[in-house]
Structures are given as C-alpha cells and as structure tokens.
Amino acid sequence: MSRQRRLVLLSLFTGIGLMIVKFFAYFLTDSSAIFTDAAESIVNVIASGFAFYSIYLSAQPKDENHPYGHGKVEFFSVFLEGGLIFIAGAIILAKACYNLFFPAALTHLEQGIYLIGITSVINFAVGFYIMKRGRALGSITLVADGKHLQVDAYSTVGLILGLLLMRLTGFQWIDVVISIVLGLFILFNGYKLLRQSIGGLMDESDTALVQDVVEILERNRKDEWIDVHNLRVQRYGNELHVDCHLTLPRYLDLIQVHDEISAVDKIVNKEMSVRTEFFVHADPCLPQCCQYCQVGNCPIRSEQFRERISWDTDNVTRNQKHFLYAIAE
C-alpha cells in the first residue's frame, strides 16, 4: 500500500473515532455548538473515504484513454470535500437559527467540554502530520485533508472557549452564537476548497509553480538557451506537465537540439519537488535575437550583444520571443 493511502486511512479511522466521541458529547449536553462540531466530523469521514479512492485512482499508470494519467481526480476529491463542508456549514446555520427561537436546556456541559477538547488535540496533531507529508509527496488531496482536520481543530478550540464563557456567565444564548459563527467559518473554508478545485479542473495557472520553474531555468540557464517563452504549467495529481518554447541557435543540428531540450528536462526534474513531464518546442533564433544572445563565437551573428534579459514570470509566460517583448516595453 502506498504512503498516500496509508495517510488517508489514518485520517479516515481517526475521523470515525472522533465523530463517535463528538456525537456522544452532543447527546450528553444537547449543545448546539457541540452539534456543529459533530456534524462537521461526518464530512471528515466521507471526504477521507473519497480521498482514499482518489489517491488509489491517481496512482494508476497512464493508459490509452488517459494519456496524462489519472491525477486530475484529486481535484474532484477536493471539490467533494469543499462541497460537503459547505453543506455542513449550511445545516449548522439552519439548526443554530432554529435553536435561537427554540432553545434547548444544556446538561453535563463540563464533561462535553472535556470530550471535545481531547478530539481537538488529536485532530490538530493528525492534520499537521498529514498536511506535512502531503506537501512532501506533492498530493493536493492529502494537503486538503490535513488542512481540513486542522481547521476542525481550530473551530473546536473556539467552541470550547465560547462554552467556557457561557458556563462562567450563565448566558445560554452564547451557545447559539458560537454555532452561528462556526457555521459561517465552515462555509468560508468550504468555499475556499471549492474555489481551489474548480481552478485546478479549469487548468488555472498556479502562479507559485510557474515561479518555481522560471527560477530554476533562470538559475541554470545556458548561453545556448537564448530565451524561453510561452511557458505553461499544469498539475495532474502529484505530477506536473510543463510546456514551453525554447529559442536555440538555428545552426544546431537535430541531435544537438535534442540534447539541449533533454538538459532542460533533467534540470527541472532534479530541482522540483514533484515529478515533472516537460514538452519543449524548439524555436530557431532570428537576427533580432542577437542583441540579447550570449553565445560566444557565433558564426551567424548579425548584431552585437547588448544586454542580458533576466527571465521572470512576465516574459517567460508570454507567447513571443524576448526581443518582441522588449520592443513592446
């Protein structure tokens, strides 16, 4: 069994155990705020179950119907988790509004606080571990799952503080207010996960990933790499697919061009934290490129070298050679 699936199983079994404890605390106290916490635990369990399946599917090799692999399913997993969190937040708000008009008497509040306090510590520890390992493994599903567990722990801490305040003051309406605030907090976090998943499914550019690739290329650039442009980065699960145009001296033969493209691929794969598949379109240089070309003893140079153009996300992502970019500026 892969490390990703073992981590999701840890999240799943932890979620089931904590859900049972939280519902026991709710039935013990009849607290609307504790019900909020317990209801979100159902989401944790369902989301972890689907995350297990999505990680299994994303690990399957490429096939005829899926030439880019199955990694996109991880965005569906994040979408499901975000949607369930959003629904849970709406249900929690509905129940809180009901209890605002029809309040329930609270019992055994101190025991309930102890129980959910224990679940908060466990949730935070497991969430921190899963999120840390998810980042190391390049899995957005694990990162989302770990972050969700940590958010759950933070909301539980806020809930406990509110219940302690209610116990000190005797104002039972605080219970409903806590439930409403946490419901809105849960809705907001559900929205953020939905936004992330939709962006991934729509191949929205990941600015941080593009920046990482550009910095690697700039740091390791060779004189023969006259410019890089039209660079795009897509994430498929724990793999990246990068394509770009690389301007090379036009007198290079096919073997030399292949060697330069392979060098780009190897450098990026060596320095990126996730496996990267590179597709490079080789462009021949033009006379206008001479002004920023650093190739020494070039047999076809028509202009003197003037300045070195640093590569950044602005000029590398544009679909034009850098002399056109310089003219536009």
The coarse overall form would be: elongated
Give the distance, in angstroms, between the N- and C-terminal Cα atoms: 54 Å
Mean pLDDT figure: 81
The CATH homologous superfamily of the largest domain is called Cation efflux protein transmembrane domain
Write the element-wise H/E pattern from the N-terminal end onward.
Answer: HHHHHHHEEHEHH
The low-pLDDT segments are none
Using the coordinates shown, work out and report the CATH topology of the largest domain. Alpha-lytic protease prodomain-like
The helix count comes to: 10
- The Cα radius of gyration reads 27 Å
DSSP strand content: 5-15%
* Helix amount: 55-70%
What is the CATH domain class of the largest domain?
Answer: Mainly Alpha
Structural class: mainly alpha
- In total, how many domains does the architecture comprise? 2
Domain Cation efflux protein cytoplasmic: 209-285
Family: Belongs to the cation diffusion facilitator (CDF) transporter (TC 2.A.4) family.
Keywords: Membrane, Transmembrane, Transmembrane helix, Transport
Main location: membrane
Write the layout of secondary structure elements.
Blueprint: H1 3-29, H2 32-58, H3 73-101, H4 109-137, H5 140-169, H6 173-201, H7 207-220, E1 227-236, E2 239-248, H8 254-271, E3 275-284, H9 313-316, H10 322-328
Helix pairs in contact: 1-2, 1-4, 1-5, 2-3, 2-5, 2-6, 3-5, 3-6, 4-5, 5-6, 7-8
